[in-house]
Amino acid sequence: SSSYLLPWVNYCKRMLLKLGCELHIRRHQTLGSAPMPVASHSMRHVRALDEERLMEVEWEDGGQSLYPFTWLRDNCQCPHCTLRSAEARLLLMADLDIHTGMDSVEVTKDSKVSIVWPDQHMSVFDAEWLKKRCFSDAARQAMQEELFLNERYYWDATLRIPQVDFQEVLHDDGAALAWLLALRRVGIVHLKGAPAEQGQVARLAERIGYLRLTFYGHTWQVQDKSMANNVAYTSGKLSLHTDYPALHFAPGVQFLHCINQAKEGGESEVVDGFHMAEQLQREDPEAFRTLTSLRVDFTDTGTDYCDFMLQSKNRIIE
Length: 318
Ligand SMILES: [Zn+2]
Description:
alpha+beta, Double-stranded beta-helix, NE0471 N-terminal domain-like, 2 domains, 4-stranded antiparallel sheet, 3-stranded antiparallel sheet, 19 strands, elongated, binds zinc ion, GBBH-like_N, Butyrobetaine (gamma), 2-oxoglutarate dioxygenase (gamma-butyrobetaine hydroxylase) 1, TauD-like_sf, metal-binding, AlphaKG_dependent_hydroxylases
């Protein structure tokens, strides 16, 4: 979802289109409904440590995992506690005994963990399901890697911006995935080969999700306008900035489409805000502390798609 995507520092000149969009990445598998591979993680033994209120699983390939009683009861996968079709909990917090004990626990013939709770409610967990949710640092790390959450590349002026073909992204799933992975890793991708006419950013966004409406409309034209309600709508130079700090949910990704290149000037400049923040933290920790803690007022007022007057309080570096 959009929360994976990077806040964006950019600089744009006239004759560019831009829009905010939430990316919806459909992963090849989801956490709850992963197809069960051949049981590669079988259990040797399982027992309840009543004193610590932990269940211990000993794995066939060595190593143990510990699961808190309360966490297991809270995550019961039975049809009374979990709505399968939604992969969502049905169990009410009010019905959860956070001090629960465990009556019995055993490994079943088909290699699942079967638990009977004091009120005789029964929970059954797959070995794979438990293994995946092991609380150890190593298992958490593996989960992060599976979700590609560690893949980040911080860059400077030596960056060679990843390039992909616009038409290929529109028509080929492999190209679209490569584009999205590059976008998440680097934060910026240059798509080439889009027709030089309006409507292309919407085509691209709809390929993977939906446009997010703002008070500037679904999409908007960045051009020199009289009575401009945004400095981007003037012919002057813009300095580096972050867009939409006044919004409560800043855009995860922006698309800008150059339809008509200016005869003179019009260069786009971008900066990796993560790289800058990391550098600042190293070189001036005091400044970094200030910028990550002090909340600043942002406002945006005017008329466009609708009348608007927004106000937010945000840190310069989130
Ligand atoms: Zn249940």
